[in-house]
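Inputs:
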Amino acid sequence: MKIGILVNAGPYTHQANDSAYLFARAAIQKGHVVERVFFYHDGVNTANRLTEPPQDDRNVTSRWSKLASDHKIDLVVCVAAALRRGIKDQILAPGFRISGLGQLIESGIKSDRLVVFGD
Amino acid sequence: MTEATQAARPEPKKFMLVNRRAPHGTVYALEALEVVLIAATFDQDVSLVFLDDGVFSLVKSQKTADLEMKNFSLMYRALDDYDVNKLYVERESMESRGLKASDLLVEVEVLDRKELSERMEQQDVLLSF
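Outputs:
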């Protein structure tokens, strides 16, 4: 099954961002295809490569980057939501790109399921 | 439209945007509206639902100057220009907040919870904000 994912919640505040990651990983392990993850609202903060959690905590941003590079997932950050929050090309973590909401709609059109994670 | 172009174009999907929050406590209502406008440009079958505090988004005569926020409620009136005219309000949410359909700034279809859940069942993509 082709799965699209929408992440509305920012990293470290809400479990939703972690749940989206764990869901994506589990779906891929089961043989499903995750083509794109779209980050909206505070979810865009996930793309900030300057984030530095304590060493004994998970690194939300870098584990998304790794999952994306291992499984060719397109990580898309909403441009309007990103610019409001200072998320620009200069600080994007590997695997993330900035684009428009059209990418979310396209994901809804192309996927068999679009799964939303938010608060 | 000729039959050939109809065949070439995939069936539009049913997108339903669910507004559950009041318009100005969080950014969700505004950003859901932005998703609606983009979805409409993709020629999809788009509908909007207002339930829980989301029904407040449609209340007439909102004044947002004191909040120093844009009054985006007027944009709901422009949805018809984008061929988005399926607006559903959950009856239970509306009535429990003391509102009537005549308090709302656009024409909506008022559905009870059961009818609304049936509409939700028919969707391809449900986006809840």
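Remarks. Chain A touches chain B through 17 residues (CB under 8 Å). The longest helix of chain A spans residues 15-29.
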